[in-house]
Amino acid sequence: MDAKIADYAMIGDCETAALVHRSGSIDWLCLPRFDSAACFARLLGDRDNGHWSICARDVIETRRAYRDGTLILVTYLVTKTGAARVIDFMSPRDQHADLIRIVEGIQGSVTFDVELVIRFDYGRTVPWVTHPDPTTLMAVAGPDTLFLQSPVRLRGRDMRTIGVFSVAAGERVPFLLTHRVSLSERPPQVEAMTALANTERYWRDFSDRCPNVGPWTHQVKRSLITLKALTFGPTGGMVAAATTSLPEKIGGARNWDYRYCWLRDATFTLQAFMHLGYFDEAAAWRDWLLRAIAGDPAQMQIMYGVSGERRLTEWEAPWLKGFRDSSPVRIGNAAAEQMQLDVRGELVDTMARAVKGGLAPHPRSAELRRVSLEYLATVWREPDEGIWEMRAGRRHFTHSKVMSWVAFDRALTYPPQSARDRADQKRWRAIADEIHAEICQKGFDAKQNAFTQVYGEPWLDASLLQMALVGFLPPSDPRILGTIAAIEKRLVRDGLTLRYETDVVADGLPPGEGRFLACSFWLADNLVLTGRHGEARALFERLLTLCNDVGLMAEQYDPATGEMLGNFPQAFSHVGLINTAVNLSRAMGPAAERATVAPAATPLTVSGT
């Protein structure tokens, strides 16, 4: 099956997620958590690496959609003999993960083939399969057990489980797949239609709170649901994507595990939630963040596991050939060990934005902010790996220095409560001014009239679009306008924005990738801030066309082939979509609010030459 990323839809229960191909095959599922080993890994291998297909015969037409305001996927099938629908969802979790598929007849009679291939440990381990009774299949391997309950008669053949059934108009055939640890008892029978009603109510209760966002309300609501689905409910941590190793270039090696929580996403996500009134979700994300980083500030990582795990050791799964032969398949992410100064700015900015947005201060936020700033004061002059997690050595990235400035700048927005606070703020003001002056001197290239990716080098970087968004300089500053113009000239290709020029910048990896969609949303936000509203809206409308048929976005897009690239669905892309929609529909959107600096924190204007 030569699948495309856009062929998939996601279902989930806010603890894990599955990807469903438009053909009816579930090709990716990790249990019991987002970052657990996959039991269906066909996405990154082949059918022998695990999948669960319920496919109609003699299909003439297929169309699919989520039920409005939910994560319930409905696929409509027209065949030579009739019509039917397949309803796929994961019910809100009680104790165990339940994946439910309901096949309903609409017209005539439709015949379906079922094939279940369970392979634990990322498609490698064949389980022991038994049938405790005629309606139940049990698959066991090591710590994992899957139970499949259905009235359809299933049988084994060639290490697979297969079956055939038909539905006539008005008939309904349910399937229930449940995960339990091996020592647990058999799960109780779940009534599929009751679970469907409960799941629909759960998602509607969430999505109905979404306010009007003009003509983009429907897509904003879909993006909100996607972010909620990527949030690990027990802790509030949000994974960057539901997948690992979907390639940034087909056949390439830029394949990473995104099933973890990046601190960098914190401010953007917090603003997206708060601007739409989702303060419980914003508070849960903020609280996860502060729990995860607790401890020695020198040990703060750029990413963590969904429960705050720090050890995310990267390794390769050589038995998986990769998505369309894009190898290696990586599990874990070595970037967790990198030094990236910008995340400390995101941390302090997140805490400041949370207070400004009306969230009650976290009991530990003041002390965490202070010790983080004390540490940053000792390391901000050092080089780092930068926002894009480059693997070619540390450099003085301009964006990293800007976000270091943000950390000290935002600390000045808190009213001092003591003599110690006043002394600290005097130091923070001096450091912020020093960083600001250095960036304007070393990070600005007068010949290009633009800030550059790295001190002393001519290359551009889309992360520089953050400079206006964080209030480093006013949007009207000639240096900001020059940087935007330079990025539009050199990094915008086919109407979409590159992160940087991988063919000329030494980043330790083979060149070539798609357009990083979040960067194009940042460009649209800059156009809003600089008064180019018509162009911003046109770019945003173009970006909306890059969603697939069920409204999901990947990390990147290739204009040459029209294909999505990178992990999917990508939280950062959907956060960008929400924030840009709000920026275009409100006078004071996330971009204008974040770029507005309190009087005490107004930066010095230093000429860059």
Describe the structure.
The chain is α+β, with helices and mostly antiparallel strands and 609 residues long. It contains 15 helices and 28 strands. The protein has a 15-stranded antiparallel β-sheet that branches. A three-stranded antiparallel β-sheet has the order 26-27-28. Strands 16-17 form a two-stranded antiparallel sheet. Helix 4 runs antiparallel to helix 5, helix 12 packs antiparallel against helix 13 and helix 13 runs antiparallel to helix 14. The longest helix is centred in the last third of the chain and has 24 residues. The protein is globular and about 75 Å long.
Q: What is the domain total for the residues?
A: 2
How would you describe the oligomerization state of the chains in this entry? single chain
* Reported CATH architecture of the largest domain: Alpha/alpha barrel
Shape: globular
Radius of gyration using CA atoms only: 25 Å
What's the number of helices? 15
Low-pLDDT windows of residues = 598-609
